[in-house]
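A reminder before we start the practical. When you read a complex entry, don't treat the lines as separate problems. The point of joint prediction is that each chain is placed relative to the others, so the output describes one connected object in space. Small molecules and nucleic acid strands, if listed, are placed in the same frame. In the example below there are two entries. Take a minute to note the order of the lines before looking further.
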Amino acid sequence: MKGLLEICYLIGSVTFIVGLKMMGNAKTARKGNLIGAFGMTIAILGTIFLFRTEHTTPSAFKLVLIFGAIAIGTAIGWLTAKKVEMTKMPELVSMFNGMGGACAALIGLTEFQHNIGNPTALSFIVAGMVIGTISFSGSIIAYLKLSGKLDKPIRLPQYNMLNNIVLLAIVVFAVFVIIKSTGLPLAIIWVLFAVAIVYGVLFTIPIGGADMPVVISLLNSFTGLAAAFGGFLYDNKPMLTGGILVGSAGTLLTLAMCKAMNRSLTSVIFGAFGGGSAAASGDSVTGTIKDIQVSDLAVLLNYSKKVVIVPGYGLAVAQAQHVIHELEKLLEERGVEVKYAIHPVAGRMPGHMNVLLAESNVEYEKLVEMEDINPEFEQTDVVLVVGANDVVNPAAKTDPSSPIYGMPILEVDRAKHIIVNKRSMSAGYAGIDNLLFYDPKCSMFFGDAKKALTELVAEIKTL
Amino acid sequence: MEIFDFFVQNREMIYFIILAVFVGIEVIGGVPTVLHTPLMSGANAIHGVVIVGAIIVMLDTEPDNIFGLALGFLAVILGTLNVVGGFVVTDRMLEMFKKK
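Here is the predicted structure of the whole assembly.
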């Protein structure tokens, strides 16, 4: 039955490539995902029923265990993925990634004892275990950060140096275990496992919230790499194809995300921003802030020709996607041209805001990307910024000392009026003051996005 | 020269890896920013293929090694979470793009 298994594995490998390719295009993306899932099912079923070597001892009991585990995993995974709110998606992806990493780590932990004295196999086992473990503990920290349970970056003194020392220690330790495995106590692999957990935590905790998407993407490619090492160990083609594919594609995606935020990968990992000393270094701004009443704002919007809405994560948190769509429809009825300006990293991840707005039925064509909308601000009467902050901060262009200096922003200050809806004057995710609020053309419209916008819609209806 | 022996013995594997790395880069090239999140999530589901390794661990473990079986059992659960959760959440994201 070896031949049939090879065919299953071939199908699996090819569907991963084809599926991932199709996911790169909005039209074919959903089908691509399903194709990948189909290939995965074939590869899994093939392994369960057809993978037989001189080491395997299949039994009915084991099959029950395997299917039991799959049933438990499917039930939990399916329910969580179906139930989660779209705003919480990034942390969920991080959590699932951590599970994959933990799976790779457990494989290494169990296989270690069977391969004592075989340096080649051990190097795959130890590498897969260490990388999987780092991805696991790192992803859990990323999850906690994104879900707000751990909101401040934690910087130990000299954390870069400390991290590098721990990493070096892991490498030396790992090489030692691989070469000198005979005679070492089996528990040594658990010590290495513990150190790798610590490193994953140390690696992720200093990184600021705004950089989390990049970190998740990076950890995602780590898990891919860990899967690939499993593929080496078992000479298993779908694990190799899937793992290497995700490892290389994930690395490229990480770099693309960095580029969208105008950050280099090294500055994300070694010189994180988001609070701490970096935030304090920006010049503190002085000036006055105006606020605007809902009745005035209703009139202003109603008699505008062109309104651009800049949605941010705050909008999603307040669950105001539906109200904003209502506002957009109402204004369109009154003859106002309405568009949405989408910053590449609006929300918590690139493309996150598009998903959120699509969920509330906003037309795809109305979502305009940064490069295309920036020249239009000149002819825009009102820019309505809802729950966005850092992506409209002019300091990114004007203040070299600002931690977000150089990040491409939506140039809303070129519009005739700027209205910013915010709950309070607190700083954005990067933890820095926003010069825009002090612009003479800018007025603040304070209040919870959903409540404030609902009032605004009601007010416009009376006009 | 052990290192040369390694290359000779694993020649096909090395070619395979290099080509797979390029396929990964090629496949992702030119993807619009909008699709970064679903793509990352989809890739996340695909590395769940590590579950295949967990199943092999289960099949390989001696039937009386309860600790080994327990670890394998846990690994299969975690791998399934990665696969199923990954594909389902990606599908949910992409469903919204398709409606238009």
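Discuss with your neighbour: Residues 254 and 352 of chain A are 15 Å apart (CA to CA). What might explain this?
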